[in-house]
Amino acid sequence: MNKDLTVGSPYTVLWRFCLPMFGSVIFQQLYNIADSLVAGKFVGENALAAVGNSYEITLIFIAFAFGCNVGSSVVVSRFFGAKNYGEMKTAVSTSMIGCAVLCAALMGVGLLGSDALLRLINTPAEILADSELYLDIYVLGLPFMFFYNVATGIFSALGDSKTPFYFLAVSSTANIAVDVLFVTAFDMGVAGVAWATFLCQSISCVLALWFVFRRLKSVPSEGKMVWFSWKMLEKIAVVVVPSILQQSFISVGNIVIQSVINGFGPSVIAGYSAAIKLNNLGITSFTTLGNGISNYTSQNMGAEKMDRVRAGFNSGIKLIWTLCLPLAVLYFFAGRWLLYLFMNDAASGMATETGLLFLRIVSPFYFIVSVKLVADGVLRGCAMMVRFMIATFTDLILRVGLAILLSSTSLGSTGIWLAWPVGWIVGGGISLAFYLTSVGRSRGTVKTA
């Protein structure tokens, strides 16, 4: 069901729109969490380290898919809010075609360069073969991940956050069962968790595409549909390229950090791998709310309702802090028991202590990074991509630079974890300042840049 986000109480509209998106994030993260959980519990610590090590490289591919999701979603929602359904359909088909070309290029890079990428980040010899095997299978499933992301972006643009949730709820739950089946019954090891993700994600992708095309067919539009438009591609690229660059640089930064972590051995890698999955569950949830606010902002800009954009920011802060509190408390006080889910037993001393320390350092600062992500959502919805990128890159550069610097001191690996809060504080301050000066205090329309 399509939903107009330009009417009704901003808080209620955002809550109803974003709640299924939170559910989708949880199930989306179950794909990666399940891989690490099954690898760690049923194969061993080195398998957990191999999956976690490969995960940092897969984030580059996820960055491109996420950029396609955001770009198509923002542009489609703008036309939907303006009731220009013909241009909206052209934006959808142009997004699909552009996504196919980009995905094909990335598959070539991934299949030919996985070994080089893993060696570049100083992957320990004992986990290199499993890391490469997992990564190769993951790359084969890129088309499903890309088209699924574009499809969910389109659903969000139409104000429908429930349909993607249903797909993910079924497929990610099935993924856990297939993970265990392939690893325990068929003794497939790391390859089993990779093929399980491939299989379940492909099914959810096909279903999502089928439903999105049915939904678009029911939307009335005048004249003959234009399947591809260079002008439309340019509009989409204005949002896609900065979003991809932002996410890609974050991924590259994470890879640099992973290479530093790899110097501390498999136990630290395994502890970080488990903790970062839990952390990413929280950060991705916050990011999803930011994406929802981007759709909300874009629809209301299309309808020329800037007062609702500002009201949406305030409502978004209330919503995201409602999510921050239980996560921060859970990770800080119950992190050890959550980490045991990924370990063979409670005796995985160094790995567990590493993960626990990371969670206790970063979780209190969720309240700061969440404000940044809400402000970023508004900036992105207003197509203010230059401001958006400045705030993001400042956070990233600080985190990577400090991780390298502090890890070489007596702090060791603890220095790496301390870099997260510093980057979030500075980046969050910049994002909030950009919002206040360009949107929060403006009247009428705003300039996009």
UniProtKB/TrEMBL annotation:
InterPro entries: MATE_fam (IPR002528), MATE_MdtK (IPR050222), MdtK-like (IPR048279). It is a multi-pass membrane protein. It comes from the Bacteria. It holds the Pfam family MatE. The chain crosses the membrane at residues 12-31, 57-80, 92-113, 133-158, 165-186, 192-213, 319-343, 355-374, 418-437. It is found in: Cell membrane. Keywords: Antiport, Cell membrane, Ion transport, Membrane, Transmembrane, Transmembrane helix, Transport. GO terms for cellular component: plasma membrane. Belongs to the multi antimicrobial extrusion (MATE) (TC 2.A.66.1) family. This is Probable multidrug resistance protein NorM. It comes from Candidatus Faecalibacterium intestinavium.
